[in-house]
Amino acid sequence: MLACAAAAKVADVRRIMANIVVVGMQWGDEGKGKIVDLLCPAFDAVVRYQGGHNAGHTVKFGDRHFALRLIPSGILHPGLRCIMGNGMVVSPEAFFEEIEQLHAAGVETRGRLFISNRAQALLPVHAALDQAREKGLGEGKIGTTARGIGPAYEMKAARFGVRLGELAAEGVDVRLRSQLARISAELVALGAELPPLPARVEDDCRAWARKFEPYLADTEHLLHEALERGESLMFEGAQGALLDVDHGTYPFVTSSNPTAGGACTGTGVPPTAIDGTLGIVKAYTTRVGGGPFPGELTGETGEYLRKRGNEFGTVTGRPRRCGWFDAVAVRYARRLNGAKLLALTKLDVLDELDEIQVCVAYRIDGAVTRDLPSRLDRFARAEPVFETLPGWKRSTVGVLEESELPKEARDYVTFLEREVGAEVGLISTGPRREETLLREHPLLASWTGGRLAKVIAERHAG
Ligand code: GDP
Ligand code: IMO
Ligand code: MG
User: Fold this and answer.
1) Which of 22, 91, 340, 411, by CA, is between 20 and 30 Å from 138?
2) pTM (predicted TM-score)
3) How far does residue 176's CA lie from ligand 3's centre (Å)?
4) Which residue of the set 44, 53, 57, 126 is catalytic?
């Protein structure tokens, strides 16, 4: 009876609080960091669930600028708890570098940032192997971020991986040695440089274990306790749905599951605790690295989007490939993620264009389809079927009222909503937190509970 009453109380609280997953709906770099940061005042904790320092999440407000790679974007909100889940692969070197940068910028992390004991360690040899493999692939390379993400996940799945919580645990050296032996053999076969001596790596592991100590926790318990207290969690995806190792454009993908299901496996929070998914979509398409890209703009317009949108990788500085909005890909991502609500970013980047095209279907071997094919050879042959819309040729930068958006811009948003089958609740027209239009939308209101006003107020608090 008591347990029932407690459960009812939790359920009562949960009715006004929500747990949402923020997912990139394209090939990454949609502006997830910006939107997560903006919505933080409505949540009690931000949780990363997959990926590693291949991610680069930019957050700007006032005159401040941060590029987060491993640490959740919520860290910039004093007092907010941030969790790095078991689904992540964490490079100790990259992590401590990021911590130092944050501390130097006056951002406190101790006592509010927790990393899962079950997250995997990404070792320097993983990066060496990633780079050697890419070199070996030549023209057919994936175009990875060269950070070692693939090898780290591969070792986890092969059960040779080392979890952060056991870096200095007894007996782990056997697993570590097996792993290093395998990697060394492959590096030799690829004609690449050998990794550091195993003895040194073990010493490194012990030193890292000491440094990680203040941050490590059984984060599943922290999250379950937070849920039982009726707190609201925001799960921050890295990469994007089309880079998902299962559902993306394989093999030109990353090695984890950015799609919403990853928020469960990558944190230990059950699907029943998740209330919805906010999909982040850029007003056009970008892609870094290799792989087919129907309708890629290689000419003047592509160059315009790259320059105006500052489309250069946050992590690697590589120019991003640009193209028109691909409604086929985003429709697929909407279904994969159950995203009923979208945040549309970088609308301002289209401000100067006379006409805007949207890819609404693919023509593959003469047949028109509105669905993304699973086979890469078919996807590579997909020709975009475009619809053309008029541009608005006026600045939308920083517009906060929908009535102040040019009619053509509003029509563009409506067109995308119809094509994708989801509604746009936020429109971003500049990189900074304050340059975001929030629409009155029941889902946004229910997800943020009584705290939407706080989001709006803090939008301008640099
Ligand atoms: P993420 O990986 O999804 O967090 O995205 P990135 O930070 O890698 O890339 C998005 C880039 O676009 C960053 O440089 C942001 O500062 C910038 N950005 C985000 N939203 C907007 C927007 O609405 N307009 C413009 N012009 N830039 C934006
Ligand atoms: P955020 O979180 C864009 C891409 C790489 C490559 C492929 C595999 O900032 O959106 P990996 O190093 O993961 O093995 O590379 O995935 N990629 C990203 N592209 N944004 C990202 O992260 C990415 N993380 C990986 O360019 O094509
Ligand atoms: Mg990015």
Assistant:
1) 91
2) 0.95
3) 31
4) 57
Spacing, Cα 400 to ligand 2 middle (Å): 31
* Amino acid letter for position 51: G
Contact between residue 268 and residue 223 where contact means Cβ atoms under 8 Å apart: yes
Q: CB 5: neighbour CB atoms within 10 A?
A: 9
Say whether the peptide bond before residue 251 is cis (omega within 30 degrees of 0).
yes
- With H, G, I as helix, E, B as strand and everything else as coil, classify residue 83: strand
Q: How far, in Å, from the CA of 212 to the mean position of ligand 2?
A: 25
Query: CA torsion, points 361, 366, 367, 369, in degrees to nearest 10?
Result: -20
Ligand nearest to the CA of 33: 1
Q: List the Cα angle 323/327/332 in 5-degree steps.
A: 120
Looking at the DSSP assignment, which residues form a beta bridge with residue 345? 282
Tokens 């780079």 appear where? 131
Q: Per residue of the chain (462 residues), what is the pLDDT tens digit?
A: 444 445 445 444 444 679 999 999 999 999 999 999 999 999 999 999 999 999 999 999 999 999 999 999 999 999 999 999 999 999 999 999 999 999 999 999 999 999 999 999 999 999 999 999 999 999 999 999 999 999 999 999 999 999 999 999 988 888 998 999 999 999 999 999 876 665 677 888 999 999 999 999 999 999 999 999 999 999 999 999 999 999 999 999 999 999 999 999 999 999 999 999 999 999 999 999 999 999 899 999 999 999 999 999 877 789 999 999 999 999 999 999 999 999 999 999 999 999 999 999 999 999 999 999 999 999 999 999 999 999 999 999 999 999 999 999 999 999 999 999 999 999 999 999 999 999 999 999 999 988 999 999 998 876
